[in-house]
Design brief:
The protein has a seven-stranded mixed beta sheet, sandwiched between helices. Strands 3-8-7-6-5-4 form a six-stranded antiparallel beta sheet, sandwiched between helices. The chain is built from 13 helices and 13 strands. The N and C termini lie close together (about 10 Å). It has two domains: about 10-45 and about 165-289, 3-Layer(aba) Sandwich (Rossmann fold); about 50-160, Calcium-transporting ATPase, cytoplasmic domain N (3-Layer(aba) Sandwich). Helix 1 packs antiparallel against helix 13, helix 4 (about 60-70) crosses helix 5 (about 80-85) and helix 7 packs parallel to helix 9 (about 190-200). It has about 290 residues and is α/β, with parallel strands linked by helices. The structure holds adenosine-5'-diphosphate and magnesium ion.
Length: about 290
Amino acid sequence: ATPTALLVGTGRGAQMGILIKGPEVLESTRRIDTIVLDKTGTVTEGKMTLTEVHLAEGESRDEVLRLAGALEHASEHPIARAIAREAGSKATAEDFTNIEGLGVQGVVDGHAVLVGRPRLLEEWSQHLPDNLVRAMEEEQAKGRTAVAVGWDGKARAVLVVADVIKPTSKEAIAELKALGLTPVLLTGDNEAVARTVAAEVGIDEVIAGVLPAGKVDVVKRLQSEGKVVAMAGDGVNDAAALAQADLGLAMGTGTDAAIEAGDLTLVRGDLRVAPDAIRLARRTLATIK
Ligand code: ADP
Ligand code: MG
């Protein structure tokens, strides 16, 4: 191959807002047939806001926010930031533990507090009362993420956070499909939420409820089925999957770990640059052949 053409391709990429790790990346880009997209922060903005607090009978909104807020203050997760910001809690948590991809736990004012996936609370025998299960399911059907709050052995509330889909995601996915790629939405969030978001942007395949460590296995599984896989992501929990993929697309707006692991960085965090990158790779290599 002529290195000059590859270098020109790399330079053109930079002008388009695509940072390419090396000229050889263009070769793998050309063969991609499947693109796995992380939901939060990749298809969506990843800037969450607390929109609703659903309480179990007899619970107080202020107390729920005070205890959950104190705990989430210690977490970097976008869900945690939304809750901590809204709560503005003065209390602090002791013995804080982040349970990767599931939630957080700690002690606030002598209460053992848990915030996270309902499944996590169930494991601690904190069962959600019917009114909270119903509220949670209604919110999830609208594409909103629901997390449960419990302390001292009892589920107390469901907090709802809303994210917005990036205005460019739908168009980007239509272009990727037009280029012959199959998009797959991958998330640790609940299936109903993922389905709603997927439908809004035109994705048919959804893999939900995946733990952070499981994202890389999803990429491996698709590869073992013979697929040539691109993965687009922004989070620390996407880094291993980005590295495993035949082509890792890191959102420039994402974490350093993701950018390190990716082959291409989409500088503006705009997914429309993904089809641009694939077209560029195909054109550049056509020049060489
Ligand atoms: P994603 O794949 O969308 O980036 P994560 O794997 O980070 O999601 O998280 C999956 C789920 O775990 C969240 O939807 C939430 O229910 C729960 N979770 C993770 N971290 C936290 C936290 N700090 N506070 C509350 N819930 C959390
Ligand atoms: Mg993400």
